[in-house]
Design a protein that fits this description.
The protein is an alpha/beta fold. The chain folds into two domains: about 10-215, UDP-n-acetylglucosamine1-carboxyvinyl-transferase, Chain; about 230-409, Enolpyruvate transferase domain (UDP-n-acetylglucosamine1-carboxyvinyl-transferase, Chain), CATH 3.65.10.10. It contains 13 helices and 22 strands. The protein has helices at about 10-25, 40-50, 85-95, 105-110, 115-120, 160-170, 185-195, 230-240, 260-270, 300-310, 330-340, 370-380, 400-409; strands spanning about 5, 30, 55, 60-65, 75-80, 100-105, 125-130, 140, 150-155, 175-180, 205, 210, 220-225, 245-250, 270-275, 280-285, 290-295, 315-320, 345, 350-355, 365, 390. The strands form six sheets. The protein has a four-stranded mixed sheet. A hairpin with a 2-residue loop joins strand 3 (about 55) and strand 4. The two termini are about 15 Å apart.
Length: about 400
């Protein structure tokens, strides 16, 4: 068995949340082990345009000032293809001066944002759509929100809830009531855990209601960004598929990141996982068919679907409805590309993907401008000669070093 070691970069989810919280914190904040990627660059650039001074040093970002520096003038911000950036910045726009417009590249402008806009309007925000209702570009003309209750759907994107949670200490006394079931709960857990680290308490009533008591503020000087379980998942999958032993460094074994659940799924498939201080070891043994709910780790669904293609038998992935409004319609994309590999799939409803695994063949894979399509199907390339991943540079969105790390092992 090969014995390999790899170090994982900081988490995108933590980096972009930390940047928002740092902009809401008095005094300089140093962010250590941040992720450098297209998505985090989009967030940094947007904050800089607003007047937040951010200085890059070796493996650290120093956020030198806060939103009190934002001037009363017109702003145009481009979130590129970053969903976290456009959603978190939209909420931030509602508590800073000026007339502010935010938009993204074509793919991002097709992703609906109407539920977040409705939530912010309930707190008094003045928001307009430039072109099409419920979609970017969006213009914000107000600079403060009223405290009180807001009703928000939990079924569209957890980032809408996170966006409201993070600005709530500035609004001072907010209650968020969740309509329907909360999807991607693990990302809410990240937001609440980070807010707690920064001195702000959130009362979570079983993901049906969130209460942020008044008279709280963010306090932080130095914050270490956790390693990214989303990034680690590809290498954990490679260990399972190639029957290798891979030690993945820079991972918190007690993390609240939902993608840590992917390692539990790999155990179900017949592999051994060992947790140690700041690292995890995966000893690959086999890939058996599984039936699993992916709601806590939706970003690993594509990776699991590719692994399931090699598991002889039927794998059933439920809890995948949120994948339909990501960078691409991920369920359709998965089915099409797995079909090229001669793997049969079914999707009997909006929330389920069935993979009939067996003997996948190498193919040329379209990535649909979706970083996770590229990285997931690269896993198959570690065992199938002749796999071709088109537009490999899409990984720059969240993991620019992916191909370099892959080459290392």
């Amino acid at each position: 068995m090969k014995n390999l070691v790899i170090s994982i970069p900081g988490s995108k989810s933590y980096t972009n949340r930390a940047l928002i919280m740092a902009a809401l914190t008095k005094g300089p904040v140093t962010l250590i082990n941040y992720l450098e990627s297209d998505d985090t660059a989009a967030m940094i650039n947007c904050l800089k345009i607003l007047g937040i001074k951010i200085k890059k040093e070796k493996n650290t970002l120093v956020v030198e000032n806060d939103i009190s520096s934002v001037e009363d003038k017109s702003y145009e911000l481009n979130a590129n293809l970053s969903g976290t950036t456009i959603r978190f910045i939209l909420a931030l726009f509602c508590i800073v001066p000026g007339v502010k417009k935010i938009f993204g590249e074509a793919g991002l402008n097709k992703r609906p944002i109407g539920d977040l806009v409705l939530g912010l309007k309930q707190l008094g925000a003045k928001i307009e759509y430039e072109n099409q209702d419920r979609f970017p570009p969006i213009i914000v003309k107000s600079n403060k929100l009223q405290n009180g209750e807001v009703y928000l759907s939990g079924e569209v994107s957890s980032q809408f809830i996170s966006a409201l949670l993070m600005i709530s200490p500035i609004v001072d006394g907010v209650t968020i009531q969740v309509d329907g079931d909360q999807i991607s709960k693990s990302y809410i857990d990240i937001t609440i855990a980070m807010m707690s680290d920064w001195g702000v308490k959130v009362e979570n009533y079983d993901y049906k209601k969130y209460v942020i008591p008044s008279n709280q503020k963010y306090i932080m000087k130095n914050y270490v960004i956790e390693g990214d379980y989303s990034a680690a998942g590809y290498f954990a999958a490679i260990a399972a598929l190639t029957k290798s032993k891979i030690r993945i460094k820079n991972l918190n074994p007690h993390s609240v990141q939902g993608d840590r659940q992917f390692l539990t799924i790999l155990e179900k498939m017949g592999n051994k996982i060992t947790y140690r201080t700041n690292e995890v070891t995966i000893e690959g043994n086999c890939v058996k068919p599984v039936e699993v709910n992916m709601e806590l780790c939706p970003d690993q669904a594509q990776t699991l679907a590719v692994l399931a293609a090699f598991a002889k038998g039927k794998s059933v992935l439920t809890g995948v409805r949120s994948l339909r409004i990501k960078e691409t319609e991920r369920i359709k994309a998965l089915r099409k590309e797995l079909g090229k590999m001669k793997i049969k799939t079914e999707s009997p409803n909006n929330d389920t993907l069935i993979i009939f695994g067996g003997d996948p063949k190498p193919a040329e894979i379209e990535t649909y401008n979706d970083h996770r399509m590229a990285m997931s199907f690269a896993v198959a390339g570690t065992i199938l000669d002749g796999m071709v991943i088109k537009n490999p540079e899409v990984v720059n969105k969240t993991f620019p070093e992916f191909w370099k790390k892959l080459a290392q092992i």
